[in-house]
Design a protein that fits this description.
The complex is a heterodimer of chains A (214) and B (164). Chain A is mainly α. Chain A contains 8 helices and no strands. The radius of gyration of chain A is 27 Å and the shape is elongated. In chain B, helix 2 packs across helix 3, helix 3 runs antiparallel to helix 6 and helix 6 runs antiparallel to helix 7. The chains are: A mainly alpha (214), B mainly alpha (164). At the A-B interface, helix 1, helix 2, helix 3, helix 6 and helix 8 of A face helix 1, helix 2, helix 3, helix 5 and helix 6 of B.
């Protein structure tokens, strides 16, 4: 193509007209903070690892824990905590390993693939957390169903004698399930929005490199 | 020791800074973004420098890190409005080689290249820098055959942009 050859000739000339930075300017730059996507992914991922755990520290959560015990679901709590923490440790290990693999010295495709893999680890972790949250709500609903006095278990005085206990039970279970759906969906939305925004560009470029192979 | 390394790195980069400037020119549209990207590439180069063992040329290694930063790591700041002022710097043609048709053609070409996607730009950049297809394929992580095919497609794409 003639035009591209023309451009090539011009490109060479143009190289000499580029702005030039002095030694000191470059020296100052190497101490500036990076604002790369990888750094953002790292920070946001760490937050995503921490946030589900910070929830346990809120006062309302400790009240909820008491409800769980009163509903006779203490065992579920212990088991799910053990499962959760072993899975969390596994994810953190995976994340760290993948994060370490990211190197700008790799070719573009491998670099993109490694970054996306790192991010995917966090994605799976969040899906795991979201399912755990949702399952907790379901188990709580089941606990209510099996409980003789759900009102007392929830920490309220059973002063509404006039209400049919069976009806009350169903209303409470429905409320818990609906709440479960809302909480899970809201957390999921926030997360996937963050995830999508962060890796939009990476996904696009990676797809393009992958498509070349077809 | 670290002081030595710093000095060595900055000297090398100062000498080869044209490569980084050219990448910035292709991937950004205004002076601030150009500076931003230049800085990010410099940081990434410096971070990777201890791993650079000199088994390839400093400039070869620079192409890879600079393009990786532009394609992958760089997050565009919001203020990337194209400024007239900056355009005129890039497309400046000196008086002695003034040829209205050629100038017009070049300007159109540069504009067309700017409209390409990140990966296509990387291919065009390496092509303009007279890298062979082995090097282009190696930098992007694709096969040589695919690099050739892709380059042909880009040429067609540029042709359509130029002659709609």
């Amino acid at each position: 193509m003639d035009e591209l050859e023309l451009l090539k000739k011009d490109w060479k000339k143009r190289g000499d007209q580029m702005p030039q930075l002095g030694y000191d300017e470059i020296y100052k730059m190497i101490w500036k903070k990076s604002s790369s996507i990888v750094k953002w992914i790292f920070i946001i991922s760490i937050l995503e690892f921490l946030i589900p755990h910070l929830l346990y520290l809120t006062p309302s959560m400790s009240k909820t824990l008491a409800i769980w015990r009163d509903l006779g679901l203490g065992n579920f709590l212990v088991i799910s905590s053990i499962v959760q923490y072993s899975v969390v440790l596994f994810f953190i290990y995976q994340f760290y390993r993948r994060y370490k693999e990211i190197s700008t010295l790799d070719n573009a495709k491998l670099l993109l693939s490694n970054i996306l893999k790192t991010r995917k680890t966090v994605k799976y972790y969040v899906i795991f957390c979201l399912s755990l949250i949702f399952i907790s709500f379901l188990v709580m609903a089941a606990g209510l169903y099996l409980s003789d006095d759900p009102m007392a278990a929830m920490g309220y005085d059973n002063s509404m004698e006039q209400v049919d206990p069976a009806k009350l039970k169903i209303t409470m279970m429905a409320t818990v399930i609906v709440l479960g759906v809302i909480v899970t969906a809201a957390m999921g939305c926030i997360y996937f929005l963050l995830y999508g925004l962060l890796i939009k560009k990476l996904n696009k470029n990676y797809k393009e490199l992958k498509e070349m192979e077809v | 020791m670290t002081k030595d390394l710093e000095h060595q790195f900055v000297t090398e980069l100062e000498k080869n800074q044209n490569i980084v400037h050219k990448v910035c020119t292709l991937y950004t549209n205004d002076r601030d973004s150009h500076k931003d990207l230049f800085q990010e590439i410099t940081i990434q180069l410096w971070k990777a420098y201890p791993k650079f063992r000199g088994d390839s040329k400093f400039s070869t290694w620079m192409y890879r890190v600079a393009l990786n930063t532009a394609i992958t790591l760089y997050r565009k700041s919001k203020k990337n409005i194209r400024t007239q002022d900056y355009e005129s710097v890039i497309f400046k043609i000196s008086a002695d080689e003034y040829d209205p048709t050629e100038e017009q053609q070049l300007k159109l070409m540069y504009n067309a290249v700017k409209q390409l996607g990140d990966i296509d730009k990387a291919l065009v950049f390496l092509y303009l820098e007279e890298k062979n297809y082995t090097e282009i394929a190696d930098t992007l992580g694709i096969t040589e055959v695919n690099a050739r095919v892709k380059m042909n497609r880009i040429k067609n794409k540029l042709r359509t942009i130029l002659n709609p």
